[in-house]
Amino acid sequence: MSRLFVANWKMNSTRAAAKSWAAALGARIGARAPESDLVVSPPYTVLAEAADPRGRWSLGAQNVSQHRDGAYTGEVSAAMLADAGCRFVIVGHSERRRHFGDTGSVLAAKLARAREAGLVPIYCVGETEEERAEGLQSEVLAAQMEALLEEAADAPLVVAYEPVWAIGTGRAATSGDAARARETLAGLLDGRAGVRILYGGSVTRANAAELLAGSGMDGFLVGGASLDPDSFAAIAGIGGIGGAGRP
Ligand code: PGA
Fold first, then answer.
1. Which of 5, 63, 169, 202 to mutate to test the pocket of ligand 1 (most atoms within 8 A of CB)?
2. Three-state DSSP class for 184?
3. What number does the ligand 1 atom closest to the CA of 160 have?
4. Whose CA is nearest to atom 6 of ligand 1?
5. Does the active-site annotation cover 35?
6. Model pLDDT for residues 48-90, shown as the tens digit of each residue
7. In Å, what is the CA distance from 112 to each residue of 18, 103, 148, 183?
8. Using a 6 Å cutoff on CB, does residue 223 contact ligand 1?
9. 203 close to ligand 1 (CB < 6 Angstrom)
10. Pocket test for ligand 1, best of 39, 162, 228 (most atoms within 8 A of CB)
11. CA 63 to centroid of ligand 1, rounded, Å
12. Strand ranges (DSSP E) for 132-215?
């Protein structure tokens, strides 16, 4: 399976900024299809501008409604996301868990809606600083992974290990931390095939190469550093000059 690098813009960007980001990444990649799979997850309002008409990267959404359709003001359904060109959707990001009450049963419903629309979920898990200090990491990951139990075992899936203490803090996990979490998650997935496991949390072009090599991860979910197309390209190892790990 090829590696996967996901840009999560969170609540950032305008249509103009998205357009220039896409132009810059396109120029970095050039005519050859990238070796790794790339996904950009912009806000809904700039999905069209962030897309690549040449298909060198895919679109992902940052969230999806747990409902199919109907009277849910402000929500966006999985079918709408697919219709807008998305192939992936982030489900269970820690910011959604914390600020918007996305928890077990809601997340299971979101995963089901994503599947109905043919979207591949990027399912995020990770412990908080306190849980880590109390030695609860494995329990927390096991509980969070329960939302996946209803899934068909052969459905393509991405799992992102994103320790909450590493997100947006500049304090990335060590490659050893990530390798151990990967092992825990692989165990919880119990041999399920076709799953890519990513690391996310303060990934930069300076730490990407070491983290990738040392952790055995299949790629990264990148927040802050993905807003700069050159940084994202470098993290994904694109562009000849640069490449993952160059400062
Ligand atoms: P960060 O965010 O790279 O800015 O730490 C990662 C994420 O939240 O997906």
1. 202
2. helix
3. 9
4. 223
5. no
6. 999 999 999 999 999 999 999 999 999 999 999 999 999 999 9
7. 29, 14, 9, 26
8. yes
9. yes
10. 162
11. 15
12. 157-161, 195-200
Whether 162 is catalytic is yes
Q: Which of 15, 90, 14, 20 is nearest to 58 (CA)?
A: 90
How is residue 96 written in tokens? 């959604």
pLDDT band, residue 22 (cuts 50/70/90): very high
Contact by Cβ (8 Å): 172, 166: yes
| 4, 5, 8: residue to mutate for ligand 1 pocket, most atoms within 8 A of CB | 8
Of the candidates 35, 49, 93, 130, the residue annotated as catalytic is 93
User: Of 196, 129, 211, which is closest to residue 168 (Cα–Cα)?
Assistant: 129
- Radius of gyration of the chain, Cα coordinates, nearest whole angstrom: 17
Cβ atoms of 5 and 37 closer than 8 Å: yes
Selection from 155, 90, 163 nearest residue 123 by Cα: 90
In tens, the pLDDT along 139-169 reads: 999 999 999 998 999 999 999 999 999 999 9
- The Cα 242–Cα 246 span in angstroms is 6
Residues in the chain, total: 247
Q: Exposed, middle or buried by CB within 10 Å (0-12, 13-18, 19+), for 99?
A: exposed
> Rounded distance, CA 125 to CA 215, Å?
16
